[in-house]
């Protein structure tokens, strides 16, 4: 009698992709059944599922919370240990300074509702781009909040690089007019690995990502965002894959999508990218509301880093001084220079 054995094949044809339990073909043999079964169990134990959400926030906090609650239920049903929501998940106003009207401390009622949602749903939440009250009534912080499955705030990061840009052919944005920049880099342990926290426009500054990987040991970098349609079409996927490849981290990019109101529209295209730069999670529709899921494979992270040891080559090159923070005027000049090149 022939014994049936599982033979595992990777779903991506690059040299560092390990055996994965989710891609199986059958052949018959009388040997190696036990060892391959053990490998399957080990592979399953060495990965954990994450979900990335996409939505179109509006200027109504209750409506947005209802949407987020539905996305949380979908993530739980999919077996995810963490759901990552996009920047401005709780509110998008009609004017750039409208967020000041609803900004509140982290112990305020809005964030407490999301803490309760995480606790009741038994899932971790990445809430990127919360309107946290600033040091005065004229400023807020664009804060990325990590909540655990008990409803506790585990870590926060305030966006360092503010979006002060004249988008070619579009509007002029000056986030610094009502937002105070953060100063500190943040990384935190979670069920899906050690997280590096960023927000939206931070994506254009690779030094921050290098520090998260090489100084703070990040395995997964979160990029909640609300890219404009113009910048998203030109740069979104390219930048995300570059950050994943150069840091050898998973990158989870949850995006706002579609038309929020008469004056604001976001690009969408929520993505999950592995350390090799392969897109492993993507919604079927760039502008739809929903989630995409993928398994964070820790053996893949280890394999890519071991076989292409860029960390060793960078020893001594990554400084240990304060976090990268570009002067706002210099950032503006750099962006305008790049825009002239791209659109000339």
Automatic annotation (TrEMBL):
The keyword NAD does not apply. SUPFAM superfamilies: Carbon-nitrogen hydrolase. Keywords: Hydrolase. GO terms for molecular function: hydrolase activity, acting on carbon-nitrogen (but not peptide) bonds, in linear amides. InterPro entries: C-N_Hydrolase (IPR003010), C-N_Hydrolase_sf (IPR036526), Nit1/2_C-N_Hydrolase (IPR045254). Signal peptide: none annotated. Transmembrane segments: none annotated. Residues 48-298 form the CN hydrolase domain. Coiled coil: none annotated. This is Carbon-nitrogen hydrolase. It comes from Corchorus olitorius.
